[in-house]
């Protein structure tokens, strides 16, 4: 039995530490919808979708981990204490059904 623990929508700036600094790979924006689950006593994270601005990261995560990553145009701007985050999915694999 899979037990839902809690759900979250996250927006993050990503900077992978394991890669050399490369344009479009070293820093990019990501939007994800995830839930925290517990199955047979083991905790984990279930990603419903992940949108990212890095073409290479999207393909790498899809191939290596079968994650539901999609190409997107994302912007984040700060005004005082507020951060305005906008995302538009551009991936052909995400045709509305």
Structure explained in plain terms:
This protein is mainly β. It has one domain. It contains one helix and five strands; from the N terminus they run βββαββ. The chain has one helix spanning 55-65; strands spanning 2-14, 28-39, 42-52, 69-79, 82-89. It has a five-stranded mixed beta sheet with strand order 1-2-3-4-5, covered by helices on one side. The longest helix has 11 residues, at 55-65. The two termini are 28 Å apart.
Concise account of the structure shown:
This protein is mostly beta strands and 97 residues long. It has one helix and five strands.
SSE ordering? EEEHEE
Largest sheet: 5 strands, mixed
| Low-pLDDT segments, ≥5 res | none
What is the number of strand segments? Answer: 5
Number of helices: 1
| Strands ordered across the widest β-sheet | 1-2-3-4-5
Question: β content, as a range?
Answer: over 45%
**Overall number of structural domains:** 1
CA gyration radius, whole angstroms: 15 Å
| Cα distance spanning the termini | 28 Å
Helix content percent band: 10-25%
Q: Which shape, going by the Cα principal axes?
A: globular
Backbone structural class:
mainly beta
- What's the overall average pLDDT, rounded? 78
């Amino acid at each position: 039995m899979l037990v839902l623990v809690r759900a979250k929508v996250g927006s993050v700036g990503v900077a992978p530490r394991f890669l050399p600094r490369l344009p479009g790979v070293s820093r990019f924006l990501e939007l994800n919808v995830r839930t925290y689950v517990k199955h047979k006593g083991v905790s984990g994270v279930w990603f419903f979708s992940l949108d990212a601005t890095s073409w290479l990261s999207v393909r790498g995560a899809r191939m290596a981990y079968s994650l539901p990553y999609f190409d997107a145009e994302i912007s984040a701007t700060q005004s005082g204490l507020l951060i305005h985050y906008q995302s538009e999915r551009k991936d052909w694999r995400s045709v509305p059904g």
